[in-house]
Amino acid sequence: MERPRHRQRVVATAAAIAALVVAVVGVAVGQAQTQPQMQIQPTSGLPGSAATVSSITPCTGDITVADGPPTGSFATLGTTTSTGSWSVPITIPSSAATGPFTVYGWCDTPVQTNGSSSSLVGAALGSDGRASDGRAATSVPSTRAPSALVPTVRTVYAPVTFTVTSSSSSSSSSSSSSSSSSSSSSSTTPVGPPTMQLSSSTVVQGGKVTVTTQGWQPGSTVQVWLRSDPVFAGSAIADQAGSAVVEITVPADFPTGAHQVVMTGIGLGGVAAEIAADLSVTSLGGAAAAAFESSGLGAAAASGSGTVTGSSGTLPSTGSDRVVPLTVLGFGLIGAGTLLVALRRRLA
User: What is the mean pLDDT of residues 272-285?
Assistant: First the structure.
């Protein structure tokens, strides 16, 4: 009879141990899956920067934010008392080294006593002194009652990381941003209006002028007009560089005086544009007389003197000052005689 009883005891002991192992593993897994979360904003900056740590998982109790875990040595960065969601402003230590800076946080919830039974705020204590969610009940100083040791349950948040940057990298980033902004600004500089040049600012009636122009939308049509009274003078297609060359002819009956050559089309910015250049139109007779005078022949004919250029050099002309007038008179008499002969024949 002793052997069956012994076997039963062994089996019972093994079952109890197995149940305990399952319970411990279950609590550990539950705690890992439900570890409270918090966040920090901003997530990077220089030493001495201001930041705010806030809850993702709410908690009721005394909140502590520090540079180390509650189980080791730490320096407190900030505290608050919460009844749910919370936020704690902190300052990153000026002595913090460049790189990741870990921030820790935890919540101490006071134990409430109701009659003869103890409980935790939000989680009842079991007979083993732990909360139903696995949190441990401890006795730590409470910010609500500084002079007393109050039983609490501590909820430890998952740590967050703040990246500490150096002033050199910050200035480099600022310089890069400034350079980017400058290049962006230069790339958006407004495009100027088209321009044009005339081969001559003066032309005779019936004459030609070559117009060279730049600053038009490639492939667009550029029209040329003569004004004051608008007269269409021609058109051209702007090349890939936005330039064009067109030769225009001034009508033979176009009024003399001051006028303009006007070009219209689409500029490089895709906006309609119109430009103009001054043009002076002269009569054909006036232009010939001006050329005759400018050559010096007019003055020579009026004075009856001049020079003749030959192969042996320049020879002075000789004779009376009346040679030219007499020659003109002779031609006039010949013409009159011819006219009289013609009239006589007609009368006969």
Answer: 89
Please tell me the predicted confidence (pLDDT) of residue 235.
93
What does the alpha-carbon distance between residue 135 and residue 35 come to, in Å, rounded to a whole number? 11
CB–CB of 204/282 below 8 Å?
yes
Name the nearest CA neighbour of 246 among 216, 212, 297, 274: 212
The whole-angstrom separation of Cα 162 and Cα 247 is: 72
Q: Which residue has the higher pLDDT, 336 or 209?
A: 209
Q: If you write DSSP's letter for every residue of 94-145 in order, what string do you get? A: TTPPSEEEEEEEEEEEEEEEETTEEEETTEEB-TTSBBTTSPBEEEEE-SSS
> Percent of the chain beyond pLDDT 90?
46
- List, in sequence order, the alpha helices (H) in 150-233: 167-187
The confidence score (pLDDT) of residue 55 equals 94
| Count of Cβ atoms closer than 10 Å to residue 213 Cβ | 24
Q: Are 193 and 226 in contact (CB under 8 A)?
A: no
Q: Taking the model in full, what pTM does it have? A: 0.37
Which whole-number Å values give the CA distances from 287 to 72, 199, 201, 254, in the listed order? 107, 18, 14, 15
Instruction: Looking at the chain, list the stretches that DSSP marks H as alpha helix, in order from N- to C-terminal side.
Output: 2-33, 167-187, 284-295, 297-303, 323-347
Q: What is the distance between the alpha carbons of residues 274 and 262, in angstroms, rounded to a whole number?
A: 7
Question: Position of tokens 């550990």?
Answer: 28
One DSSP character per residue, 218-252 reads TT-EEEEEEETTTEEEEEEE--TTS-EEEEEE--T
Of how many residues is the chain composed?
348
Q: Do 119 and 102 form a contact (C-beta atoms < 8 A)?
A: no
